Each structure stands twice: as structure tokens, then as C-alpha cells.
Amino acid sequence: MKNKEVIVTVHSTEELQAVDRKVFRYTAEPVVKKYIEDFLDNDTGEVVSCERNELIFERGRALSPDDFSILLFHLQCEDVTEVKLSDVQRRGNVVGGCHFRLWAVKACGIKKLKMLLRADNALLAYEVAKDYIELNYEGTFTIEGIKTYNDCYVIEPEKDDGKRNISADRWWYIVEVESLQQDPGVEPVSLGTGRFVVFAENVESANAIIGRYMAENKAKKGETVNNVILRTKSASVISCNVVVPAEFCFAYTKRNEENQ
What we know:
- With about 260 residues, this protein is an alpha+beta fold.
- Helix content is about 25%, strand content about 35%.
- It is elongated, with a radius of gyration of 27 Å.
């Protein structure tokens, strides 16, 4: 197996013709054709120009002689201005997660940090943690571990500055609760379960906070909350000393998406 991938970037037909096609025969990035399309705005009657993108080849494609001819054509037409070729074929493509999740990150350096933050994948969790530590702590550090809490709802504590997470009388809990419809004279009916992360004094107060949170959400949706009780199925304390504010995580992700 090769020790290091080599990528060449070409911007013209001359550069592509000079490439060793037996070695650099895989696309290192998607090849995209860009062009301007004019269309009529029916409301204003004006002709509006819009830039369009059309995928020519996916990343990791093994290029045939005909494929190289297609690349030469588009470079000559200048609707493709850059092609990156590799001597290694990468078949997989990483994508972002489908939703925000809670992650626990351990960092060690001047101070040992056990952090909670939001991200949609482990790579972004690493970047958020790294960025937050660099902005708020002085000295060198290493990130030693990352794990996720799948499908948890995070209930933000009131007036939390993002750093206060363990106190003399409150802890971060992860609690799984079951909602039960308990009408008079009949057996309780399960409405489903959910996992929550909440800052509370004990399991009972965590359960009460979760109940208020669920009631407020249902009220916002116009749903009724009659004869519903919560039953705690499991509860445990999360060891952490830093919680990255949700606003920081969301803003960081939005900034990354805009830069892609």
C-alpha cells in the first residue's frame, strides 16, 4: 500500500495532456461544469442570469480514455477550470450527520476538561471542542476522547454561562423517561420514551424539569397534556466540567457550511 497519496491539479488542456494517465487516473474531487443560464422573470419581464453547476464525474472515478477526452473538451470550453487527479482511488465519501447530537469530549493539558457540546458528527465535534478551548483557555492541550449520546434532548439550564456544570447541589444527568397516559379506572398506556440531558439537584427534580419541558413544547404545538405522567426508566450523572453553549455550536456549524 502506498505511504502517501499524490494529487495533481490541472487547469488547462496542455497540463492535462502532460499528466501520466496511467498513474493519475482517479478524480480526487468531483469534476463540476459551471455555466451561466439566462431565463425570463415573468414578474418583471427582465432577463436574469444564473450560475449553474453540473456534475461531470464523481470523486474517486477511474478515468477511461474517453473520460480524459471529456475532460479535455470541458477544459478547452473553459466551463471546467480545475481538475484534481490522484494516484489513489478513494471509493467512500464522508457526509455530515442528519441531526445535532450531544457529544462528550475529553481534553488534557493545562487543565483537564470534560466537555459537552453539540455537533452532527465526530469530526465537527472535534473542531468545535478545539475552537472553544483555543478561545477560552491558555496553554497547550490534546483531545483524548470523543463519544456521543444518541437521540438525547438537551434541556438548557437557566442563566448558564457554559462553564458552570458541577456545583455542590446540582449535576448533569442523562435520564430516560417513559410518558404514560393514566386515565381514571384504566391501566396506564405508554406514549413512548425519550432520553434527556438536564442540570438538576437529583433524579426527582430532573424528572420535574423534563415534565415542564415536555408540557411547554406540547403547549406551543397546541396539544393538550391531560393525565400524562412520567416514569423514570434510568438515570445517571454525566461527569463534565464544561458545557459549550448551544449558540456557539450552532454558529460554528453554520459558519462551516457557508465556507464549504
